[in-house]
């Protein structure tokens, strides 16, 4: 019976939906995390009576047909790249982006990754790095005799040096943005990679046209909304249960048919 297979595709689709929702909920407290959503498409149809076909010798045509679908499939899990809540941390090297853009990070293999997680630290050489020790591009080094460090809204990094009255410029934080942010590949560790779908990055200073600004001693929280995720979880659970009931009903119908043929 075709209903068994159709219902099984529905159960598989909702199982994947629950997995996506559970990942969103698990990352509610992950800095800079962007939630995903599931997108579905219906499968191929078997046409049992073609719409528009001739229904008589006089040339009349069928206004509607008979098409039986094959079920559903998961086709995409795009990320919702909306702004997360920005909260104060009181840490000097924490930086949040308010608006468009990603921080650029150099991976050990030389590739450039992109992140919204601005929880930065200094390594043993005074270089600005991520929590995993990856260099924040284009590379900023804080001298050991720096008394304080300030990061402006436009990404300029300055340090007050012992014995000097004027602040010393240390470098410039640059941001990258993409035509299709949802086309970035999630690498894990709060990092994204460029793909042919995302397009090449556009790099400029914070505050430039089309780019957000930077906030020192702030971090961007996840954009996961607990109420929305729980609501979606309940809907997915109900859809799964309905598909499982279709399987049970189809099984009972097959049993009745089998009994009649004995």
UniProtKB/TrEMBL annotation:
<dbReference type="InterPro" id="IPR010930">
    <property type="entry name" value="Flg_bb/hook_C_dom"/>
</dbReference>
<dbReference type="InterPro" id="IPR001444">
    <property type="entry name" value="Flag_bb_rod_N"/>
</dbReference>
<dbReference type="InterPro" id="IPR012834">
    <property type="entry name" value="FlgG_G_neg"/>
</dbReference>
<dbReference type="InterPro" id="IPR037925">
    <property type="entry name" value="FlgE/F/G-like"/>
</dbReference>
<dbReference type="GO" id="GO:0071978">
    <property type="term" value="P:bacterial-type flagellum-dependent swarming motility"/>
</dbReference>
<dbReference type="InterPro" id="IPR053967">
    <property type="entry name" value="LlgE_F_G-like_D1"/>
</dbReference>
<feature type="domain" description="Flagellar hook protein FlgE/F/G-like D1">
    <location>
        <begin position="96"/>
        <end position="159"/>
    </location>
</feature>
<feature type="domain" description="Flagellar basal body rod protein N-terminal">
    <location>
        <begin position="4"/>
        <end position="34"/>
    </location>
</feature>
<keyword id="KW-0975">Bacterial flagellum</keyword>
<feature type="domain" description="Flagellar basal-body/hook protein C-terminal">
    <location>
        <begin position="216"/>
        <end position="260"/>
    </location>
</feature>
<keyword id="KW-0282">Flagellum</keyword>
<dbReference type="GO" id="GO:0009426">
    <property type="term" value="C:bacterial-type flagellum basal body, distal rod"/>
</dbReference>
<dbReference type="Pfam" id="PF22692">
    <property type="entry name" value="LlgE_F_G_D1"/>
</dbReference>
<keyword id="KW-0969">Cilium</keyword>
<dbReference type="Pfam" id="PF00460">
    <property type="entry name" value="Flg_bb_rod"/>
</dbReference>
<protein>
    <recommendedName>
        <fullName>Flagellar basal-body rod protein FlgG</fullName>
    </recommendedName>
</protein>
<comment type="similarity">
    <text>Belongs to the flagella basal body rod proteins family.</text>
</comment>
<keyword id="KW-0966">Cell projection</keyword>
<comment type="subunit">
    <text>The basal body constitutes a major portion of the flagellar organelle and consists of four rings (L,P,S, and M) mounted on a central rod. The rod consists of about 26 subunits of FlgG in the distal portion, and FlgB, FlgC and FlgF are thought to build up the proximal portion of the rod with about 6 subunits each.</text>
</comment>
<dbReference type="InterPro" id="IPR019776">
    <property type="entry name" value="Flagellar_basal_body_rod_CS"/>
</dbReference>
<dbReference type="Pfam" id="PF06429">
    <property type="entry name" value="Flg_bbr_C"/>
</dbReference>
<dbReference type="InterPro" id="IPR020013">
    <property type="entry name" value="Flagellar_FlgE/F/G"/>
</dbReference>
């Amino acid at each position: 019976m075709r209903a068994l297979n159709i219902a099984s595709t529905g159960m598989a689709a909702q199982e994947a939906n629950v997995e996506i929702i559970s990942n969103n909920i698990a990352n509610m407290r992950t800095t800079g995390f962007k939630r995903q959503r599931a997108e579905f498409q219906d499968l191929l149809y078997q046409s049992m009576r073609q719409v528009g076909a001739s229904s008589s010798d006089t040339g009349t045509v069928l206004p509607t047909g008979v098409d039986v679908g094959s079920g559903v499939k998961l086709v995409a899990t795009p990320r919702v790249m909306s702004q997360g809540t920005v909260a104060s941390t009181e840490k000097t090297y924490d930086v949040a982006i308010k608006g468009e853009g990603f921080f650029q990070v150099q991976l050990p293999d030389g590739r450039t990754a992109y992140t919204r997680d601005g929880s930065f630290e200094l390594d043993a050489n005074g270089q600005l790095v991520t929590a995993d020790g990856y260099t924040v591009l284009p590379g900023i080094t804080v001298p050991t005799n720096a008394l304080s460090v300030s990061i402006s809204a436009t990404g300029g990094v300055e340090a007050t040096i012992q014995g000097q009255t004027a602040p010393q410029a240390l470098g410039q934080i640059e941001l990258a943005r993409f035509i299709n942010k949802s086309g970035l590949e999630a690498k894990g560790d709060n990092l994204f990679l460029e793909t042919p779908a995302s397009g090449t990055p556009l790099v400029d200073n914070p505050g430039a046209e089309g780019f957000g600004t930077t906030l020192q001693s702030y971090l961007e929280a996840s954009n996961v909304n607990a109420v929305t995720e729980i609501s979606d979880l309940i809907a997915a659970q109900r859809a799964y249960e309905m598909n499982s009931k279709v399987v049970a009903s189809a099984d009972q119908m097959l049993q009745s048919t089998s009994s009649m043929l004995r």
